[in-house]
Design brief:
The complex is a heterodimer of chains A (467) and B (284). Chain A has 18 helices and 14 strands. Chain A is α/β, with parallel strands linked by helices. In chain A, α4 crosses α8 (117-130). Chain B is α/β, with parallel strands linked by helices and 284 residues long. Chain B has a seven-stranded mixed beta sheet with strand order 11-10-9-8-12-13-16, with helices on both faces. A four-stranded antiparallel beta sheet of chain B has the order 1-2-6-5. In chain B, β8 (100-106), α3 (110-122) and β9 form a beta-alpha-beta unit. The radius of gyration of chain B is 18 Å and the shape is globular. Classes of the chains: A alpha/beta (467), B alpha/beta (284). Chains A and B meet through α13 of A and α1, β7, β14, α8 and α9 of B.
Chain lengths: 467, 284
């Protein structure tokens, strides 16, 4: 096909559940491409000589190559190509902010819409899995070196996948009872089906990665214990820590959740199936979610599925500054979420039994840009008003988890308690200890955590060759 | 691992559970807790550690049937295996040679206070224990407490055994006898811990309490267990469970503990119905 014809093809959309239908269930929203749609979309790729999209990918997938394989119908080949550098393509295809990464720099964006790289990634990975075509890649002969990975989220799983292929023995320690970290406790089923996470985890297990769940490092074993047990390298990817709250009066009224708790109850513990599952969740009729990130969108959309009549996003800046993915904001809008922009809560009111009944808010206006480059919200005096709420979900980020730093002498942390690690290698202040993901950066994305894992794995491998 | 070695009734609704968890017993100390999950549908519930034996790898928990999960747990049998036992969690109780210590345990709280009292005694403290229950048949570990205490005082709410009244009556009396007390640890229902602190705050005697708020992950991620201590939000799973009792907002804790009363009732009724039916109890 010549260039002109390629440029004539419009960007292909995935079919999805209608908003009216999907807010009544927890099933995934988009259905994914059919093989025909995928091949059509893949033909839009111009196969640039100097592909900039690869630079936009934190795990450096050879994007034009896998798309070329999709275009000619070799979907399994495409999946194999992606897996050379990305152990988690079915996950990344769903939750990566492609619009800010690979698709942002696609040359088509200048005049047309970018190639739907994320949709294609998802399609090829799903095809391979659903057709039972997942193959075990070549694994280097055993090196006799042992690596411990603390936390089984996107960072830890990436390190595990990369190092096992290089012939090292890899053991993953997970504090929760399920493997996957934020992929299982945080991101809802309707955005990332848990069966897909499980399939990726099973794949790593097939490669020989050993995973110990319900094993809290910092309590059951310290990092030093792991070295005594014969591990030569340790990667710390413990993820999000204690949730931040607004520090305003009434924060501990019943009905006020952190997003971490609200999502963990719903996703990991399956509270949406209470009482078949034992874990309860309280989710009322008027639910306000504080924050503007993906976690806030996940929470507010969960509240609709749990029966909210009014689901609000309360965000102190304007729509433009929201850190959430455009697609998530769009899905939330379609589902009827009400957005209160330039609004900040200043106080919760409650009843005698200790339940939240309303939230006092103040309107904001945008002032000068702050350190993050976004315009700082400034309260407008006298603009206070009250919102009736029975549930509040606070989704304004996390601080760090103290368990590993507290019990690891010599491990440097910054003033927020995040582990200090070299940006290029993930090395920490302790010899033989690497760290990456949210425990280093604070709340970020799945793919940045995977990217950090990738870099750390490379450096750990170099290190192990010399010990 | 996670196998039930022993499960028996100590008193109505009060059960002793021994679990084989060798790794945890290597590390656990007095004041810490574990999280249990019975099966795939189960919730994660925190349980205080009553005792442990690192040689046999057996951890002892004493629990009361207060809701669906604990009622279900009580129906399990020797040899059943729990889906998960996570721990040891929380910061161990700070124990040193304080001098004279008073250990106050109420109801099911006698179980964890026993572990603390035993450890205090091993550290060379003089240990005066005050234990209480609603009624004589609900009083647990009397013999065990007697064995590790220099002095043991007992109360029951209904007067069926020991002093007729509350543990705080005995504590007030003890403190008025001019016994010099250096350290007090109180574990029991929140109202009891609040009452103990009501007695000790004006006297300025350091009082540590062990809090039991609702938890989910219990490893410093979800924030369910937040409590107000000294006007600040603390997370009982990683900052506690022990706190300076004089600083704790007990009233808030009582309200937060009642958050799921409605759901607990639904779960319990459903469980009762299923128990009557042909389904057998047991870990799936």
């Amino acid at each position: 096909m010549d260039m002109k014809d390629r440029l004539k093809i419009p960007r292909q959309k995935m079919q999805e559940q209608s908003p009216q239908e999907r807010i009544k269930n927890f099933r995934e929203v988009p259905f994914g491409y059919t093989p025909e749609l995928a091949m059509k979309e893949a033909q839009r790729c111009l196969q640039c000589k100097k592909p900039v999209c690869i630079d936009g990918c934190p795990v450096e997938i050879n994007i034009p190559e896998f798309i070329r394989l999709v275009a000619k119908g070799d979907f399994t080949g495409a999946a194999k190509e992606m897996k050379k550098t990305n152990s988690l393509p079915a996950i990344c295809g769903r939750v990566c902010p492609q619009e800010d990464q690979c698709e942002k720099v696609c040359v088509l964006t200048k005049k047309y819409e970018p190639v739907a790289i994320g949709h294609l990634e998802r399609f090829a990975a799903d095809y391979e899995r659903e057709q039972g075509k997942v193959e075990i890649p070549e694994i280097a002969p055993p090196t006799g070196k042992k690596v411990a990975i603390v936390g089984s989220g996107p960072a830890g799983l990436t390190v595990a996948g990369d190092l096992i292929k290089l012939g090292h023995q890899v053991n993953v320690f997970e504090a929760l009872h399920k493997t996957g970290g934020v992929l299982v406790y945080g991101i809802p089923e309707f955005r990332l089906p848990k069966s897909i996470v499980q399939a990726e985890v099973d794949y790593l297990a097939k490669l020989g990665v050993e995973i110990k769940t319900s094993s809290v490092i910092g309590k059951l074993w310290t990092i030093d214990d792991l070295f005594k047990e014969g591990y030569q390298a340790v990667f710390i990817g413990t993820g999000a820590g204690l949730p931040n709250f607004m520090r305003i009066p009434g924060e501990n009224f019943n009905g006020i959740y952190s997003a971490n708790e609200y999502l963990t109850r719903s996703n990991l513990m399956k509270a949406y199936s209470f009482p078949e599952y034992d874990t309860p969740i309280f989710s009322g009729k008027n639910v306000a979610v504080l924050g503007g990130g993906n976690t806030a969108m996940d929470s507010v959309r969960t509240s609709l599925r749990l029966g909210a009549e009014n689901a609000y996003i309360v965000y102190r800046r304007s729509k433009k500054e929201m850190p959430a993915r455009i697609e998530e904001i769009h899905h939330a809008e379609q589902e009827g979420v009400q957005f209160h922009f330039l609004t900040a809560p200043i106080k919760y009111n409650g009843n005698a039994d200790g339940w939240v009944t309303s939230m006092e808010c103040i309107k904001m206006k945008l002032g000068e840009p702050d350190a993050s480059g976004r315009r700082r919200p400034v309260p407008i005096e006298g603009s206070n008003y009250t919102m009736e709420v029975d549930t509040v979900v606070v989704a304004i980020g996390n601080s760090s988890n103290p368990l590993v730093p507290q019990t690891t002498p010599g491990l440097e942390v910054n003033k927020w308690g995040n582990i200090v690690a070299d940006e290029e290698t993930g090395r920490t202040s302790r010899e033989g200890v690497w760290a990456g993901g949210d425990i280093v950066t604070g709340g970020a994305t799945v793919i940045l955590a995977a990217g950090a894992g990738k870099k750390a794995a490379k450096d750990i491998h170099r290190y192990l060759e010399n010990v | 691992m996670n196998e039930i070695i022993e499960l028996k009734k100590l008193a109505p609704q009060i059960n002793l559970l021994e679990l084989s968890v060798p790794l945890i017993t290597q590390k656990a100390e007095a004041g810490q807790f574990v999280v249990l999950r019975i099966n795939e549908q189960g919730e994660r519930i925190p349980m205080s550690i009553t005792d442990l034996d690192s040689k046999t790898g057996i951890l002892t928990i004493i629990f009361q049937e207060v809701g669906k999960t604990t009622a279900h747990l009580a129906t399990l049998k020797k040899g059943d295996v729990l889906a998960d036992v996570v721990g040891p969690l929380g910061i161990p109780t700070h124990i040193e040679n304080f001098g004279t210590c008073v250990c106050v345990g109420g109801g099911i709280g006698i179980a964890p206070i026993h572990f603390v009292a035993k450890t205090l005694k091993q550290m060379g403290n003089k240990v005066i224990s005050i234990i209480g229950a609603r009624s004589k048949n609900l009083l647990i570990l009397e013999e065990e407490m007697k064995n590790i205490s220099d002095q043991l005082l007992i109360s029951t709410d209904d007067g069926s055994y020991g002093h007729h009244g509350f543990v705080t009556d005995l504590l007030t009396q003890l403190l008025s006898e001019k016994v010099k007390v250096d350290f007090i640890m109180a574990i029991g229902p929140v109202v009891m811990m609040r009452a103990v602190c009501g007695v000790t705050t004006p006297r300025g005697i350091k009082t540590v309490v062990s809090l039991n708020p609702i938890m989910v992950d219990a490893t410093g991620m979800c924030g369910a267990c937040r409590v107000t201590v000294g006007g600040k939000t603390k997370f009982a799973c990683v900052d506690g469970p022990d706190f300076d009792g004089h600083q704790v907002d007990f009233d808030e804790l009582i309200k937060r503990q009642s958050m799921y009363l409605k759901q607990e009732k639904i779960a319990m009724e459903r469980f009762e119905k299923m128990r009557v039916g042909p389904t057998k109890g047991g870990a799936a």
